[in-house]
Design brief:
Length: about 170
């Protein structure tokens, strides 16, 4: 039972720490030299005051001690960015992205095709052709070489001991 209480107390400490860190009013007004010194994405370092302040699209809210999104500022910024010149750039980037996607897709299909072709060639060469050549060699040796004086019924002299000499057998498949 005591281990359960340890886990419960550790969990409680972790939750309290998270709440304090996340809701502690971020770094607004903290001294900074660069934007990276401000630990929230909504904050930037002001060059005039060397302090973390809310960026252009956010306003400081004293009640909640946080930067709140300013939708009108964001809409104005996006409306200025939506002129024809920027749309041409977006269309050009879109064309380049589609072209790159098509090239990568073609390269992938080519790699898969070559891999399948290579695997098929290996199967054909090592399984089918190799077995056919072995069968052909086996038939050739049995047909062209006579078996120990095949003309007469008595076997000829053998260099093997008598217990190792076997009777001839038919190798017809």
């Amino acid at each position: 039972m005591s281990s359960v209480n340890v886990y419960r107390s550790c969990t409680l400490i972790a939750v309290v720490f998270s709440v304090v860190v996340l809701c502690a009013g971020v770094d607004y007004g903290k001294f900074c030299d660069h934007d990276d010194d401000c630990h929230d994405f909504r904050l930037v370092c002001s060059k005039a005051s060397n302090a973390c302040v809310c960026s252009n699209f956010f306003n400081w809210n004293e009640t909640y001690n946080t930067c709140i999104l300013n939708a009108t500022e964001l809409k104005e910024f996006l409306a200025l960015k939506a002129d024809g010149r920027d749309m041409e750039t977006v269309e050009q980037l879109n064309r380049e992205a589609v072209s790159t996607f098509n090239k990568l897709g073609f390269a992938g299909l080519l790699a898969l095709s070559l891999g399948l072709l290579g695997a098929s060639c290996c199967v054909i060469m090592f399984c089918v052709v190799d077995r056919k050549s072995n069968y052909a060699e086996l038939e050739e040796t049995t047909v062209t070489k006579p078996r120990n004086n095949q003309a007469s019924d008595t076997p000829g002299p053998s260099i093997l001991p008598a217990e190792m000499v076997a009777e001839p057998f038919d190798m017809a498949f």
